[in-house]
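Note to self: keep these together.
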Amino acid sequence: MSRAGALALVESPAQLLNVIELGFHDTELGDMPIAVLAPTAGPTRTQLRATMALARQAGHEVTWYEPRIGGASVARTIRALAGELGGVERLVVGDPFSGVMQVIISISRSVEVTIVDDGTATLEFARQWTSGEHLSRWHQVATPQQRRHIATLARDQIAGSARRRLSPTVGCRLRVFTCMPVDLPKVEVLRNDYAWVRDRYGPPELRPGADLVGTSLVESGVLRAEGYLTGVESLVQSRNVSRYFAHRKEADWKLDLVARMGVEVVRPALPLELVARRGPTGRSILSFASTVVHTLPVVLAGTGIEVSVCDIGSGWYSPLVNLHADQFLGNVSASARRSHGLAAVAC
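Structure:
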């Protein structure tokens, strides 16, 4: 199939990196054009700009869109993409839970849709797809009043339409490109082994001490700040942590408190898979339940760097979070230990 018959839509640096990896993995997609549907958050935009440069070096034509600036911005973006979408037979999308992505999927007539791994959301997508549920994020919490709100109802309708559009009953072939341990009925699962990153960079120079990977679970309302920061301080003291790699969505006030623990706080300019592979990197990397406990063992295989997963204390959870969050994050950690033989670290 020609290059003109494919289009990738991404919203995050990790999605963009995975599109590069997919093009390296699937030669028929090759240097497919990429549309970046930019978020509003500053650090994410900064990482996206830096990763775009790598995508262009890999041969992709990358275009930046602003679907979240102003009330009619999504409609403007759809109109801008309309010409390309009309001739697209193979659509590559980043996050299946994104409202903007779901709108585009629902109006697309592509015969093949490939979802590139956007972290732990892939595991929840697999569960919801198998059980026939509408697509919604695992940590989304809404009150009964919010559920009755017209905007929420419209969003549910779009999500349902997107899911029906991805159904094999309408002739759409669905593929998932991921390094996560998923098995989906009637869906082709392509394994992302980060071959492009491993071929292009590394192995990294090793530095003494441990690197700790931060999480935005406090910012998303899943964890209480006090519990999380207590756990981080325990790891800093017991595991010789010298650097803290901040998640792009972490708040400055929280990172200031982490820095006061005597560690260097780093806001990576690129996805952590690239940063860790390029180095220098600590001989040990610690992370709470997140994407990287699945991606970094693959990216850093054979480098001598040990990746470990840190337990989340039961008392850290926000009172608004239901039991499913604990079960979901526990599954992320357990599956990483099974798949990659990672050690578990108590805080």
